[in-house]
Structures are given as C-alpha cells and as structure tokens.
Design goal:
It contains six helices and nine strands; from the N terminus they run E-E-E-E-E-E-H-H-E-H-H-H-E-E-H. It is α+β, with helices and mostly antiparallel strands. It starts with a strand and ends in an 18-residue tail after the last helix. Bound molecules: zinc ion (2 copies).
C-alpha cells in the first residue's frame, strides 16, 4: 500500500491514515465521504456515501441506468461524449468496480456484459478508453427511439378521429324572413315619421299609383 491514497468519492489524495475502509465495499474513503453504519449507527463500521445510499434506498433498476439515461440525453444533440470515471460514478450514483479503473477490457463493447449493454442499448459504443487520464469516450452509433410502455388495454390500432357531421347550410325559414322584413319596414316607417312631418303617424295618406309608399 502506498503512502498516499485517493478517496473513492471526492478523489482527494490524502495520507493513508486519514482514509478509512468502507465496511461494505471495502474501498478507501475520506471522513467527509463516509457516515457511520446507517443501520446501527456504529462509527467503527463506517459506510461510504454510495454504500449508505444503497442501504437506505435499494436499487430497483439497473446499476448503470444513470449512464444510459445520460447518453440518451446527450445523444439528442451530440455524437461524441467524453466522460471521466468520476463523472460516471456520479451518473450511476455508485462506484464503478475496480476493474473499470484498471482493465481496459471492462469497457469492451460486448453485449454479454450488463454494464456494456447500458451504453450499447442506448445506441452508443465506447470508442476510446484512457485509464491513465481516467477518461472514456463514447460515440453514438445509432438512433434509439424512446420506448413507451404500452398500458393495459391499449391497442395497436391507429388513431381514428370521431366522425364529425358536416354542418349543412340551411335555408332560413320563410316565417323568419318575413318577420325580419316586417320589422325593417316598421323601423323605416318610424324613422320617416320622425324625420318628416308634423303629421301623426296614423294620418291617412294617399299615394299616386306611380308613387310607392315609403
Ligand atoms: Zn472524500
Ligand atoms: Zn462503500
């Protein structure tokens, strides 16, 4: 063991005596990145924050779902993504296994490994791995459509709109028309009565046969 070690979460390099071993994953972390055992509260059996989170909220989805989701998201506007190993730790909310840090083979695009499927199924390949720098380059190789879960009872039929009855232009009723004309006539009569004369509206008038009554 070397004199100085790196905290597995925050990445600070500290003297070995300042780091402690997580009682669950057995890796070294600084005090800031550890809590006493969440179940017993025993400070002699500390847990790293990743392990503590896993104990408190056990995982129901794949460990690498966070990486897959990130790649899908980035895929909508870029085809090349470089991620540091620490960033991937953050995305998956957990520690990558030691082999991911030490063995380039872990990053092989082989569909037989669950972790590789997380990026392969999202439409990405690992293009380059630089473990010395701690960087992984992902390249988008195909489009993926976001799968939508079909609900129960939902069928595969195409959408058919409800038939709409066309509105037929209907001729207005004769009664209505004649009432309307009558009203107009009345108004005109009233108006001309007001305008014109001192005559009472009830006064009889005689018209010549050529002249039409107003
Ligand atoms: Zn730390
Ligand atoms: Zn741990």
């Amino acid at each position: 063991m070397s004199f100085r070690e790196e905290c597995g979460i925050c990445g600070r390099v500290l003297r070995a005596y300042r780091l402690r071993k997580c009682s669950r994953c057995k890796r070294l972390f600084c005090r800031d990145c550890m809590v006493p055992d969440v179940a017993t509260g025993n400070p002699l059996e500390p847990l790293c924050l990743h392990c503590a989170r896993r104990v408190v909220a056990p995982r129901s989805v794949s460990k690498y779902a966070g990486l897959a989701a990130h790649l899908k998201f980035r895929g909508s506007f870029t085809k090349l993504v470089t991620l540091s190993l620490a960033r991937i730790d953050g995305l998956i909310g957990s520690n990558l296994p030691m082999s991911a840090y030490k063995d380039v083979g872990w990053w092989a695009n082989s569909p037989s490994s669950a972790h590789a499927r997380s990026w392969l199924d999202s439409g990405w390949d690992v293009q380059e791995v630089n473990l010395r720098e701690g960087l992984v380059v992902f390249k988008k190789v195909r489009e993926t459509r976001i799968k939508r879960k079909r609900r129960k009872g939902e069928t595969n039929k195409p959408f058919t709109p409800v038939p709409v009855r066309p509105i037929k232009p209907r001729a207005p009723s004769k009664t209505k028309v004649s009432k309307l004309y009558a009203r107009i006539k009345n108004l005109e009569r009233q108006r001309s009565a007001l305008k014109g004369s001192v005559r009472s509206p009830y006064e009889k008038r005689l018209f010549k046969s050529s002249e039409k009554p107003r």
